[in-house]
């Protein structure tokens, strides 16, 4: 920033530090959101197969 825009050294260092912190917080936020989405995908209720929904046992014999 000093050489390109002619700003002071301390102002440019403060801007760089702010950018690094902002980017780290953004990455942490996206990572947390991704973990929540993955957890929600794993937490869905199990589906029932049509065979089990009719009350038949897996071997094909009727339960009654």
What would you note in describing this structure?
This protein has helices at residues 2-5, 9-42, 50-53. It has 64 residues and is an all-alpha fold. The chain has a domain at 2-44. It is rod-shaped, with a radius of gyration of 28 Å.
Beta-strand content estimate: under 5%
Radius of gyration: 28 Å
The end-to-end span amounts to 80 Å
What is the average of the pLDDT values?
79
What class do helices, strands and sheet pairing give? mainly alpha
Q: Major sheet: size, sense and barrel closure? A: none
Into which percent range does the helicity of residues fall?
55-70%
Short description:
With 64 residues, this protein is an all-alpha fold. It is built from 3 helices and no strands.
Task: Show the helix and strand layout.
Blueprint: H1 2-5, H2 9-42, H3 50-53
What features would you highlight for this structure?
single chain; 64 residues; mainly alpha; 3 helices
